[in-house]
Amino acid sequence: MKDQYNRKINYMRISITDLCNLRCLYCMPEKGIDHKKKHEDMLSFEEITEIAKVAATLGVDKIRVTGGEPLVKKGIVDFIGNLSKIDGIKDIAVTTNGILLKDYAKDLKKAGLKRVNISIDSLKPEKYAEITRGGNVNKVLDGIQEVIRLGMTPVKLNVVVIGGHNEDEVEDFVKLTMDDDIEVRFIELMPIGEAGNWAKHRFISNEKIKKMIGNLVPLAHHTSSPAKYYKLPGAKGKVGFINPISSHFCGECNRIRMTSDGKLKPCLHSDAEIDILNIVRNDSSRLKEVLEEAMFAKPQQHYLLAEDYQLGKRNMSEIGG
C-alpha cells in the first residue's frame, strides 16, 4: 500500500530480540540494556509470523530480520523457514554482527534466507575489540567467507565510520570489493541511543569518506535502496554510501519497522510507535487495520538536524536499525 505521501511501502524490518552478544560503543551501553523486558512482553516467532502474513496482503514483499543480534535467538532457522513460506514474500534477509554467522549460514540458506548484511566497523582485531567491547573480528571474517562460499551474494558489509576510531581503515574496507561480490556500505553515524551524546564530534560525512577513497565510478541509482553505489575500476563488488544525516532519503523510504516488544515504528528516527503486541494477542482481526494505520502514518521526513530534535528513548539495539 501507499502512505500519505504516495510512497509505496513494501519492506518490513523486524527486530526479533533486543539482546546482543556485543556491546558496540554507539549502539548499546557497556552493561547492556538497563530495562530488560520479560519474555512475555516480547513477540513470539508465531506472533511475528502472523503479523508478517497480514503485512504481505498489504503489499510487503521484502522482510529483513534484525536485532539486537538475531542469531542469538533460539529457533531462528525455523523462523526464517516459516517466513519463506508466506505467500507474497519474495526476499528475506538478515542483518547480523557476524559472530555466529559461520555456524548458522548453511542452515539459514536451506531455510530460505536470501541475503545477509554484516555490521563490521573494523578489520583490525584490537580496534574491533575496542569498538565492540570484546568482539573477535576473525569470527566475523570467517562468517563472511562462509556466505560467499555458499553463494549468498552480494554480501553487504555495513560500516559506520567513527571519528577518532576507524577512519584510517576506509581504504582497507574498499579493497575488499576488488576480488569478491561484496558491497561495502558506509553509513553515517546517527545520533541514536549511546551515540546521541557524542555523534556530532565523532561524525564524518560520507562526502568526506568519498574524497578519501578517490577513484570511484558512479553506478545507476535504484530508488528502492538508500545507498548510492560506486565502483572501483576493475572491482567485482561495489562501494555504497548511506547518508541519513548529510543527504536524507526520506522521499524514497519504503519501509516500516517492528520492534521485538511489538511496536510498529513508521520512522526509525521518531518516538512515534503503534502497539501491535496487544492487537495480535487480543484482537487479531484488527491486524490489517493497525498495519495500514502505521504505514499511512509515516512522516514526510525525519528531523535529526532540527534545532529542537530530542534524542529518542530507545537504543539502536532495541530498534534494529
Automatic annotation (TrEMBL):
Output one GO BP term: Mo-molybdopterin cofactor biosynthetic process
Which SUPFAM superfamilies does the record cross-reference, listed alphabetically?
Answer: Radical SAM enzymes (SSF102114)
Query: Pathway it belongs to?
Result: Cofactor biosynthesis; molybdopterin biosynthesis
Q: Which cofactor does it need?
A: [4Fe-4S] cluster
Q: Name one GO molecular function term.
A: GTP binding
Record-linked PANTHER family: MOLYBDENUM COFACTOR BIOSYNTHESIS PROTEIN 1, MOLYBDOPTERIN COFACTOR SYNTHESIS PROTEIN A
What family is it from? Belongs to the radical SAM superfamily. MoaA family.
Q: What is this protein called?
A: GTP 3',8-cyclase
In its UniProt entry, the species of origin is given as Clostridium aceticum
Kindly list the organism's lineage: Bacteria, Bacillati, Bacillota, Clostridia, Eubacteriales
